[in-house]
């Protein structure tokens, strides 16, 4: 019995070998008469997405009412999208072909098509408030490019810093006297060429120079007014006493001669 128990105990300590899991069956390759067939993606996955039309870009996912409302405000930097929106929103009358070179509904500007087709350049008219003209340009509707839109925003920033009154005095005024004193090179212009220039710094420098001139003029002492020398008139009696002695003597002699004749 002890020998039997020892055998049983020994058999329990032996670990049964692990049975390896069967390897997955190799994927079957399909072959044609010319060899292995290449993997082909689904046709839908290979189809390129259709390019968005100008109208779809103009709407930006909104409805026609929203798109039509955008036609009447802001600066539009792509005339093709603006034109497509006008047509799609049922507002073709809001588009004119000369808008391609720039247009704004803001008052006080010489339009590009009025200046021998100058592209995207606006000049401020005479006797016009520069401050109001810039604000109206930004409010729109204005058809321009990204450069002139950036210039208009810069001008509006300077206007906000200086204030409307001073901005007008320096760059264009509705007051004819102030407007005539503004140098031609200083009068307000919106142009693509100004986009790469230090426009804001230059305008601030003009404002500082103007402040210095006004300060110097205020500190300069004023000349005393010239007073006219006045001759004080003497009373009649004093004037008679101041006559020459010879004249007095002659008068007395004549009076005495008259008495002797009598």
Task: Describe this structure as you would to a colleague.
It is a single chain. The protein is mostly helical. Among the domains are: 55-95, no CATH class; 106-212, no CATH class. It has helices at residues 2-13, 43-46, 54-59, 64-70, 79-88, 130-139, 146-162, 164-171, 176-180, 199-219, 236-241, 245-261; strands at residues 31-32, 35-36, 75-76, 103-104, 109-110, 122-124, 142-143, 189-190. Strand 1 and strand 2 form a beta hairpin.
Give the secondary structure arrangement, pairings included.
Blueprint: H1 2-13, E1 31-32, E2 35-36, H2 43-46, H3 54-59, H4 64-70, E3 75-76, H5 79-88, E4 103-104, E5 109-110, E6 122-124, H6 130-139, E7 142-143, H7 146-162, H8 164-171, H9 176-180, E8 189-190, H10 199-219, H11 236-241, H12 245-261
Parallel strand pairs: 3-7
Antiparallel strand pairs: 1-2, 4-7, 5-6, 6-8
Helix and strand run = HEEHHHEHEEEHEHHHEHHH
- Percentage of residues in helical conformation: 40-55%
Strand element count: 8
Main sheet makeup: 3 strands, mixed
* Number of H- or I-type helical stretches: 12
Shape: elongated
Strand order of the largest sheet: 3-7-4
Q: What ranges have pLDDT less than 50 throughout 5 or more consecutive residues?
A: 1-19, 24-35, 37-49
What structural category arises from helix and sheet content? Answer: mainly alpha
User: Can you give the mean pLDDT?
Assistant: 77
**How big a fraction of the residues is strand?**
5-15%
Compute the separation of the termini in Å: 210 Å
Radius of gyration equals: 50 Å
